[in-house]
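QA checklist item 7 of 12: single-chain prediction sanity check.
[x] sequence parsed
[x] length recorded as 105
[x] structure emitted
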Amino acid sequence: MTDLAALADEHLAAARTAPHHRSAQVVVHDGVLRQSVIALLAGTALDEHNAPPAASLMVLRGRVKLTAAGWSEELSTGELKMLPKERHGLAALEDAVVLLTAVND
C-alpha cells in the first residue's frame, strides 16, 4: 500500500531543496497505467506539454492552475479533474502536490 500523505510530505521537502523547486516519483506503473506524485513549490510550473490519451489530476495538497489553449482552471486540495486531450501546463499557486494518473498507448 502507498501512503500518499507521507509521499506528499516527502516530495514537498525534496522540492524545497531541488534546483527547479519540484520533485516527482512514479508510484504505480502497470502496463499502460502510470500514477505519479508531483510536488511543486508556489510559483513553479510544468511548461505546456502534450497530453496522454487519457489522464486525470487530483490535488493532494495546495492549489494549482491547469492551463490549455485559451482557458485555465484553478484546482484545490481534494479536487479531481480529467486532463484535456490537448497541450496543457500546470502551475503551483501555492506549494502543492498532485497525483497524476495517465494511460499511455
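[x] summary fact logged: The mean pLDDT is 94.
[ ] second reviewer sign-off
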